[in-house]
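Review form for a predicted model. The reviewer records the input and the model, then writes brief findings.
Reviewer: anonymous (R2)
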Amino acid sequence: THRSHRPDEWISLAELEGGIAFYAALAREYAKEACRV
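Model under review:
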């Protein structure tokens, strides 16, 4: 998300944790699919 009032590299802790949770869930789903094959 691009915000004009701050540089893109300044990410909030909430956004960071949300991203980690999202990718963790994504990795879990991918692992489940991989194991099924």
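Findings: Residues 5 and 37 are 47 Å apart (CA to CA).
Further findings: The chain has a mean pLDDT of 80.
Recommendation: see findings above.
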